[in-house]
Design goal:
Number of domains of chain B: 2
Largest sheet of chain A: none
Oligomer: heterodimer
Structural class of chain A: mainly alpha
Radius of gyration of chain B: 28 Å
Number of helices of chain B: 6
Radius of gyration of chain A: 18 Å
Mean pLDDT of chain A: 81
Shape of chain B: elongated
Distance between the termini of chain A: 25 Å
Low-confidence stretches of chain B: 1-6
Strand content of chain B: 15-25%
Structural class of chain B: alpha+beta
Low-confidence stretches of chain A: none
Mean pLDDT of chain B: 84
Chain lengths: ~220, ~350
């Protein structure tokens, strides 16, 4: 575990050193939010939620796609000799999770400033942000580790990941309606259980398969 | 190069299960297309009448023989349960048309703004035909309380259900009910094919034998073909029953997404050069995809409203939509399409194997 954290911190430090990448991402988030809201101006809660998650999804794709990109071929071999694939994968996932969570908070802040904040149940919305970040970071990290092998990372990650993301995304959107207080105000625990089950599925599968795919 | 077992042999030396497939599919296609539907009622006019008077309605039948068979015809308007009014007089216009006269009492057993009535027509020896909500009755302006007894005088009796090999008549479905034997088995077969491909992916994962990868891909290709056909038959069906080719129903969306997942797999393979790497990534992605396919196709549609049977509270494969006659065709069709899928995959697998051998030499 300490090795994983260490690796994640290294990752973050490399990322912070190349400041342009991270600031590019923040700019992407801001620009996307700005474009969307200068088109819409006034957003009722339902549309607010939908727009929020769509912008979040694409920012997440942007962010995670690069997770294996910056590694050079030789650094792979270096990591391969040094760490177990699980450790490497865990570090990437933790780093991506924190990245997604900060994108989530940033986006929430920006949209809240620009278009008002219709969030009705703060705890639920935050919980969903955490859940979605966990699910997306596992899934996208796994998929981008497949896509990197094909050397067309960005396009292929979107093609491979988007259809697989949809169950998680739909579930999140339905919980989102609850957090925003959009009727019908159903009992959300069923949906929450469903989302957690899917995230467990994605986590289990990616942990099982990653070492195997990493081997080449 | 390995010698294919059927090389130079006459075509009838097929494996027995292939002959079985041919027989089952022939049976389900012939039965599915040509077995006629039961008698039914398509339309009643006028759709609205006022109670407390003698009304005449004209009934348009389907597959009926009103004039060619002189057996007695009786008709009832049903309010609920045993509360019915029998027709006083019935005229046969032609094989497809009846004119029935009813006296509707001016008082109803309970109070409502309008009363939807089902029409039941029994042509003796042909079995009954029912049209729910055939006519709406408005309450009479002058009500005679003593007439309420009329509702309980008539009874629906002596209806012999005809036992012959015919598919049920359903009001919106009509002849499209036959699509049950093609649309549904295609999806069943697709799931089985994708399941088998995931199984061979696991085998590849365990052994690393490249032949398992070839098997996986031939199963996936056939599965995609079946999925596309299932989607197309479903769209045709939707056009005639839901009114549009694509109505953004959750089941339609999820099945389209399921196909997108496998299309993405094909794209992934296309962008990889190295054979072993391609096989390994395929196996990994395929197992991942199949696991996510299950919530996509079977759990999510059940949790939202849907027009599709089996979702959002609609029943599927039960109740009135699949009676015993249909089961006699439906279950063989399911088995037939699954076997056909496996057969096609086997052929593409052998073809691919031969091609690869040729490339090596």
């Amino acid at each position: 575990m300490r090795r994983i954290l260490h690796l994640a911190i290294t990752e973050a430090r490399i990322e912070l050193r190349e400041r342009y990448a991270l600031s590019g991402l923040i700019l992407y988030v801001l620009a996307a939010a700005f474009i969307v809201f200068s088109i819409w101006r006034e957003l009722p809660p339902k549309e607010w939620g939908l727009t929020f998650w769509i912008v979040f999804l694409f920012c997440a794709l942007m962010a995670v796609v690069r997770s294996f990109d910056k590694e050079s071929e030789s650094r792979y071999y270096y990591f391969y000799t040094l760490y177990h694939p699980h450790e490497l994968f865990g570090a990437k996932v933790i780093y991506n999770f924190l990245l997604l969570l900060s994108i989530f908070l940033l986006l929430w802040f920006v949209l809240g400033m620009m278009a008002g904040n219709p969030v009705f149940r703060f705890g639920w919305f935050l919980a969903m942000g955490v859940m979605a970040s966990i699910g997306l970071s596992f899934l996208l990290t796994f998929i981008s580790s497949i896509a990197i092998k094909a050397h067309q990372n960005a396009a292929l990650t979107s093609i491979l990941a988007l259809p697989l993301l949809i169950p998680i995304l739909l579930s999140t959107l339905r919980l989102n309606a609850y957090a925003l207080g959009i009727p019908p105000d159903d009992n959300p625990w069923n949906e929450m259980a469903m989302l957690s089950a899917m995230i467990c599925l994605v986590t289990g599968m990616s942990l099982w398969l990653f070492p195997y795919l990493w081997r080449s | 190069m390995t010698q294919s077992s059927t090389d130079g042999q006459p075509f009838y030396r097929l494996a027995p299960w292939k002959w079985l497939t041919v027989a089952i599919l022939l049976y389900s296609f012939i039965a599915g297309w040509f077995v006629p539907l039961h008698e039914g009622i398509i339309e009643v006019s006028p759709g609205q009448e006022t109670a407390g008077s003698l009304i005449e309605i004209s009934v348009t039948g389907y597959n009926t023989h009103y004039t060619s068979d002189p057996a007695p015809i009786r008709a009832w308007l049903r309010l609920m349960g045993d509360t019915v009014i029998e027709a006083r007089h019935i005229d046969r216009m032609n094989d497809r048309e009846l004119k029935a006269r009813f006296y509707i009492p001016s008082v109803f057993p309970f109070r409502q703004d309008a009363y939807p009535m089902s029409l039941i027509v029994d042509h003796h020896g042909h079995g009954p035909a029912v049209l729910p909500n055939a006519i709406f009755l408005k309450p009479a302006t002058e009500q005679d309380i003593s007439e309420v007894g009329l509702w309980y005088e008539d009874k629906i009796d002596e209806i012999a259900l005809k036992k012959d090999f015919r598919f049920p008549f359903r009001n919106i479905l009509l002849e499209t009910i036959r699509n049950t034997y093609f649309h549904v088995p295609l999806w069943f077969a697709m799931i089985i094919l994708f399941g088998c491909s995931a199984w061979y992916s696991i085998k590849y994962y365990r052994t690393g034998n490249i032949l398992y990868d070839v098997k996986t891909m031939s199963l996936i290709n056939t599965g995609i073909l079946f999925g596309v056909l299932g989607l197309v038959t479903g769209m045709i069906w939707a056009k005639y029953t839901w009114g549009a080719w694509w109505s953004w129903d959750v089941k339609q969306n999820m099945s389209a997404i399921a196909l997108l997942i496998y299309a993405a797999l094909i794209v992934l393979r296309g962008s990889l050069g190295d054979e072993m790497q391609r096989a390994r990534l395929t196996a990994g992605y395929n197992m991942f995809a199949f696991i996510l396919l299950i919530p996509l196709l079977f759990i999510i549609p059940r949790m939202t409203d849907s027009l599709h049977p089996g979702n959002g509270g609609n029943p599927a494969l039960g109740g009135e939509d699949l009676d015993n006659t249909m089961r006699l065709v439906f279950y063989p069709a399911v088995i037939g399409f699954i076997l056909l899928g496996l057969w096609i995959s086997e052929l593409t697998y052998r073809l691919e194997k031969v091609k690869q051998h040729v490339e090596v030499e």
